[in-house]
TrEMBL record:
Pathway(s): Amino-acid degradation; 4-aminobutanoate degradation
UniProt feature coiled coil, ranges: none
Protein name: (S)-3-amino-2-methylpropionate transaminase
Protein's UniProt keywords contain Cell wall biogenesis/degradation: no
Catalytic activity: (S)-3-amino-2-methylpropanoate + 2-oxoglutarate = 2-methyl-3-oxopropanoate + L-glutamate; 4-aminobutanoate + 2-oxoglutarate = succinate semialdehyde + L-glutamate
PANTHER family: AMINOTRANSFERASE CLASS III, LEUCINE_METHIONINE RACEMASE
């Protein structure tokens, strides 16, 4: 009788997590580094390749977190590594403000070409997503001469003071760090899973869009608002996906009042949602766009791209930074974009998301703890609840599922305003076999933890 060939496995767990070497490093970490920077997995990386990450004790994991969405092209993509090696032979950092260099210009030209809209655009570079947000707000205020900036409930825009002020979740991001930047306001963002029973999606959208008009009467007039900043899919907020109607409605409000629309594509950009940029799903062309994370395979660089006349509002020396647009980040980003285009990774994101959605919607039929499964491309989330009727968030169960998955060799993270959403941000270069194995482990973690959670 013919036997089926044994499937290759990629996970190899030699120790519990943390292993002996990781425990030594963990003790050093606790002694020398503040407790504030959080860590998802209690171990230390030794080598990364594609969707695999090996720790210092020789344990190999399937990475479904992708450095919080920074590794759409995977760990150490060879083309990026080669481009970096070549750049290292020439110069490291002359500083664009001292002596300019071509990779900065080439990357700006590329982003101007591939971001939504066929209008004239300009781009400049910084170090992080938060810095991009800070500077997009500066540019919007400078251009409009207005003061107020509106963000959204559950939104996340970074940890610097303006970005933190625009961020919604209080703990752990804002608690005890006030006062915050003035003239920042928040509006509701649709969360269709949690709307009152009987309300249609259209009704939700109409009600929330009307709140803008009410706000302009009761809080700040529309002519005083410089910008509205929106994540096309909320990241830290729980991978919450709005409708086309809602996003287009917000853009229409911007146009009515002369408000600039800033798309925060830090987590959604560069193929993650099945388009190069998530705003393409909604048929909306933003005035300004912020980018970072997967722009350069994990190297620290961010960008603000916008309409040329808006980007030229600040005068010489009014925007920039010593390390913004480092040569290494620029050459890495150019290779990442080439990989996205040549290897059709946005299309691959759709396939990955479909596999995750099918797997966990099927599991949802068996398990009451799965309240909702949401995907847009390979930006995928599973919301964990105590009860499917009350939809009460279950943070503790979410934590146990994550810990079980980590011990079994799959790296995955939580998200959501209640920390009850498991988010999947696997590299888009993950193979079908790796994805299947990772989802098998995650499914078993669900079954073990959810079964243990049932009353006896």
């Amino acid at each position: 009788m013919d036997q089926k060939p044994k499937r290759t496995t990629f996970i190899e767990m030699k120790t519990a997590i943390p292993g002996p070497r990781a425990q030594e490093l963990l003790a050093r970490r606790m002694a020398s580094i503040p407790r504030g920077p959080f860590n998802t997995v209690s171990t230390f990386a030794a080598k990364g390749e594609g969707a695999l990450l090996t720790d210092v004790d020789g344990n190999t994991f399937i990475d479904l977190a992708g450095a919080i969405g920074s590794l759409n092209v995977g760990h150490c993509p060879p083309k990026v590594v080669e481009a970096l090696k070549d750049q290292l032979e020439h110069y490291l950092h002359p500083c664009f403000h001292v002596m300019m260099y071509e990779p900065y210009v080439a990357l700006a030209e590329k982003l101007n070409a591939i971001t939504p809209g066929d209008h004239a655009k300009k781009t400049f570079f910084l170090n992080s997503g938060a810095e991009a947000v800070e500077n997009a707000v500066k540019i919007a205020r400078k251009c409009t001469g207005r003061r107020a900036v509106i963000s959204f409930e559950r939104g996340f825009h970074g940890r610097t003071y303006m970005a933190m002020s625009l961020t919604s979740k209080v703990k752990p991001y804002k608690h005890g760090f006030g006062p915050f930047a003035p003239d920042t306001y928040r509006m509701p963002y649709p969360y269709y899973y949690r709307v009152p029973a009987g309300m249609s999606q259209d009704e939700v959208d109409e009600q929330l869009l009307q709140k803008f008009e009410d706000f302009f009467v009761t809080e700040v007039p529309g002519e005083d608002v410089a910008a509205i900043i929106m994540e096309p899919v909320q990241g830290e907020g729980g991978f919450v996906i709005p409708s086309v109607k809602y996003v287009q409605g917000v853009k229409a409000i911007c146009e009515k009042y002369g408000i600039l629309f800033i798309a925060d594509e830090v987590q959604t950009g560069f193929g993650r949602t099945g388009k190069i940029f998530a705003m393409e799903h909604f048929g909306v062309v933003p005035d300004l766009m912020t980018m970072s994370k997967s722009i350069a395979a994990g190297l620290p660089i961010s960008a603000v791209t916008g309409r040329a006349e808006i980007m030229d509002a600040p005068g010489v020396g009014e925007i920039g930074g010593t390390y913004g647009g480092s040569p290494l980040g620029c050459v890495a980003a150019l290779q990442v974009i080439e990989m996205l285009e040549q290897e059709r990774l946005a299309e691959r994101a759709v396939q990955i998301g479909a596999a995750i959605r099918e797997r966990f919607r099927n599991l949802q039929q068996e398990m009451d703890c799965i309240g909702d499964v949401r995907t847009l491309g390979a930006m995928s989330a599973i919301e964990i609840v105590k009860d499917p009727l009350t939809k009460k968030p279950d943070k503790d169960l979410t934590t146990r599922i994550l810990q079980e998955a980590h011990q079994q060799g799959v790296i995955v993270m939580s998200a959501g305003i209640y920390s009850n959403v498991i988010r999947i941000l696997s590299p888009l270069v993950i193979t079908d076999e790796q994805l299947t194995e990772g989802l098998d482990v995650l499914e078993q973690a669900f079954k073990r933890c959810c079964d243990a959670n049932k009353p006896s």
